[in-house]
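Troubleshooting entry. The earlier prediction with coenzyme A gave an output that would not parse, so I re-checked the input for stray whitespace and re-submitted. Clean input:
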Amino acid sequence: MSTEDITIHRGLSGVYFDRSATTFIDGKEGVLEYRGYNINELAVHSTFEETGYLLIHGELPTQAQLDEFTAELKAARELPEQIFDVIEIVKDSHPMDALRTAVSALASFDPDRNDNSIEATIHKGMRLTSQVPLIVMAHHNIRDGRDPIKPRDDLNHAGNFLYMMDGKEPSEQAIDLMDKDFVLHADHGSNASAFTARVVAGTAADIHGAVTAGIAALSGPSHGGAAENVMQMAREIGKPENAAAYVQNLLSNRQRVMGFGHRVYKAEDPRAGHLREGVKNLSAEMGQPEWYLILEAVVKAMQPYARRGIHVNVDFFAGVIYYLNGVPQDLFVPIFAVGRIPGWTIQVVEQFEHNILIRPLLKYTGDRELKYVPISERG
Ligand SMILES: CC(C)(COP(=O)(O)OP(=O)(O)OC[C@H]1O[C@@H](n2cnc3c(N)ncnc32)[C@H](O)[C@@H]1OP(=O)(O)O)[C@@H](O)C(=O)NCCC(=O)NCCS
């Protein structure tokens, strides 16, 4: 084939690179399903633990299966002492950098570290599901000069996560919203971080390497970082009546409005609506309804862009929920990572099940066949 005939799919946009039986997305209609179950059903009726089981095992659990799964997750709520030392060393870095470093270090301590079988990978993924929240909150406390807060096994995944932030009993409403947020973030097809995890798994490297790389990919503002930026934007806007001018100013400077647009969804992100209600109720209950009003004013200002397929995405409403729960802004992306571990786990498992090295091509555009000039002769 002549190089002139090469079609380049920049960003691999629109390219199918494999098959998956985990997550279905229809970006045009705004549909998301895990293992055939619509996210709208799961967000309302399921829990993070049940959704994790569904993603990893392919079907909804019986009560006994769910109990066993939950018990394994709870039993894994501990970190080796050395991981706290690692966190101490990197305590001044962004929480995502600290998380990436600690997850990488955890590989050395995992009892299945030399076993890349499907079964061991699932157990490692489950341990990571429980350990990642511990790392995020240990770093949060250590950097502020406090001791990490010990996990509680009478709380579910979401409740324990919130509890470990400051040792205060989270409200039922806060736990339910956090749980819903984790369900909504549990998987999302071959987005940048899951694809990265698959590329690593494709070389037959282990799940700790794949998740470490996934965390690195998630940390950028084009992927996971948007919730943090949305909160920043809401603070800068300050009052709902400032939103239209603020948005106009961004757009006329060809800047992006954070929490809008998606590579796949050209309709509204089906996850966003569930969090919209959460922001509305929580901000009213906490006597701070202005946050919801500011966000809705931004949505209104972005209305003309809806015709071009630019709608709110999952990150748009998430940030304010975290903020109202007292979560520091730089923990917003780590929360995304906490929810995403079951998704990365099953994507690594799927990759291992039919493994192939992922190795696309680049069309070369540089010079060719140049003559090597010794350094003494170069001008
Ligand atoms: C998510 C995102 C990276 C997807 O990008 P993409 O699929 O590569 O789409 P493109 O970057 O090609 O954008 C297509 C067009 O829509 C515009 N656009 C996309 N997102 C936009 C946004 N948030 N605000 C304003 N304009 C936007 C682009 O400027 C571009 O316009 P142009 O064709 O006139 O140049 C992009 O929408 C974005 O940066 N959003 C803000 C960050 C964010 O919320 N990320 C979280 C994703 S879950």
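This one parsed fine. The chain has a mean pLDDT of 95.
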